[in-house]
Each structure stands twice: as C-alpha cells, then as structure tokens.
Amino acid sequence: MTYVVVENCIKCKYQDCVEVCPVDCFYEGENFLVINPDECIDCGVCEPECPAEAILPDTEPNIEKWLDINTKFAAEWPNITRKGESPADADEWNGKPDKEGMLSSNPGKGD
Ligand code: SF4
Ligand code: F3S
C-alpha cells in the first residue's frame, strides 16, 4: 500500500505535505507533486495536511491511473523536502474539475 497524489493537486501545489513526511518521499513537478510509492511507509500523516484534499490511499477506487502517474514521475522529478511558495492563484484552482490535461511533465526545482 502507498499514498498517492491525485488530480486536485494540479496548479494548487500547496506543499504542506512535504513538511510532514518522515521519509521525504515527495518529488516535485512544475505544477504537481508526486509520492514515490516504493519509499512511502503508509503513515498517513500527509493526507489531512493537504488543503486541496489531493492525497489518498491507494485503496481508493479508480486510483490506478494516479498510482501510475506518481510512480512514473517520482523516477524523473527531483526530491522536495521543504515547503516553497505555492502558486499565487492556487486557491482559484482548488476544486476545479478536469485539471488532468494541465498536468505538466516538466520537473520542478526540488531542494
Ligand atoms: Fe510520506 Fe507518510 Fe505521506 Fe507516505 S503517507 S507520503 S510516508 S507522509
Ligand atoms: Fe499538492 Fe496538497 Fe501537497 S496540493 S503539493 S498534495 S499539500
């Protein structure tokens, strides 16, 4: 089992999650973060920290697509362990539907 970052993180990228992860298993894209499923210890601490409610356990229905996305980009993007600035318009994107097409495959800066 692992926790997984899902669609509503896109363009919100609040990063509260990275501050609490005991094993530093978040990886940063340009407008999205992912969890490395091989490193996550399933502690669940990050789930309630996300203001966008964008972190779910992989036991949720229909989460396979997002598990694949987390696995793929965790291998390509840099590690992030400290909260940086979230996008200025993050709150405007929180809860918007159909953000999947806006997911950038570009890496973030990491730290
Ligand atoms: Fe990190 Fe725990 Fe969240 Fe996994 S469930 S990403 S180990 S805080
Ligand atoms: Fe994304 Fe939520 Fe973390 S919006 S960056 S999963 S705090």
Task: Give a written overview of the molecule.
By secondary structure, the chain is α+β, with helices and mostly antiparallel strands. It has a single domain (3-86), classed as Alpha-Beta Plaits (2-Layer Sandwich). Helix content is 18%, strand content 11%. The chain is built from 3 helices and 4 strands; from the N terminus they run βαβββαα. The strands form 2 sheets. Strands 1-4 form a two-stranded antiparallel sheet. A two-stranded antiparallel ribbon has the order 2-3. Strand 2 and strand 3 (33-35) form a beta hairpin. The longest helix is centred in the middle third of the chain and has 11 residues, at 64-74. The mean pLDDT is 98. Residues 5, 9, 12-17, 33, 50, 52, 54-55 line the site of FE3-S4 cluster (F3S).
Shape, please?
A: globular
pLDDT under 50 segments (min length 5)?
none
In angstroms, what is the radius of gyration?
12 Å
Q: Give the strand order of the largest sheet, numbering strands 1, 2, ... along the chain.
A: 1-4
H and E order: EHEEEHH
CATH architecture: 2-Layer Sandwich
**Gap between N and C termini, in Å?**
27 Å
State the major sheet: 2 strands, antiparallel
Q: Bound small molecules, which ones?
A: iron/sulfur cluster, FE3-S4 cluster
Mean pLDDT: 98
- Output the number of helix runs: 3
**Strand fraction:** 5-15%
Features:
111 residues; alpha+beta; Alpha-Beta Plaits; two-stranded antiparallel ribbon; globular; binds iron/sulfur cluster; binds FE3-S4 cluster
